[in-house]
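Annotators were shown the component list below and the corresponding predicted structure, then asked to write short factual statements about the assembly.
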Amino acid sequence: DVKVTQSSRYLVKRTGEKVFLECVQDMDHENMFWYRQDPGLGLRLIYFSYDVKMKEKGDIPEGYSVSREKKERFSLILESASTNQTSMYLCASSPNVLPYEQYFGPGTRLTVT
Amino acid sequence: QKEVEQDPGPLSVPEGAIVSLNCTYSNSAFQYFMWYRQYSRKGPELLMYTYSSGNKEDGRFTAQVDKSSKYISLFIRDSQPSDSATYLCAINAGGTSYGKLTFGQGTILTVHP
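Structure shown to annotators:
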């Protein structure tokens, strides 16, 4: 079974803190994605990566950055957390042969106070 | 106008009912059409996908795409309480999009015994 793991299920941070969210997949997938999910807005793509050290902006990249130093690991960084970044963050991965077949992690519920 | 529109519901049906879930989209370049299912406190999982127009059936589930109307549907026959979840439509442009998906807002479905 494909497994995508995220470093925390719940996280509480203060405004202005630097926040790291980690995602690891064990299926050697080329593509990895970070989404946030908010009520009424669905899943919105923040950033994605199609190879090590490669990244592309998604639909809402402002206030976020990413890092992919190894194929299995994709990190989302909030440089200076703000209250409007309180959300559920979901990581996903997919293989190049079926790039739209994305496998999701369980999510991290981030609260910024 | 959002690229993908989905009625968020919620939708509540009795066990055994036929359920119809729908999305509309605006960009005629989209080629791949997916339905993801998300149980409470879990990440989404791919349920079905179709390419271009037509129907695809998998057990009690049928996915339908009408590209001329830019309309996609998911039908669930003989619905079960275990089908209670949020259903998300997702669309991909194909080509070099690296599996980038645009999601609808999700429809919350409850099937009561």
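Statements collected:
1. The two ends of chain B are 38 Å apart (CA to CA).
2. Chain B is about 0% helix and 55% strand.
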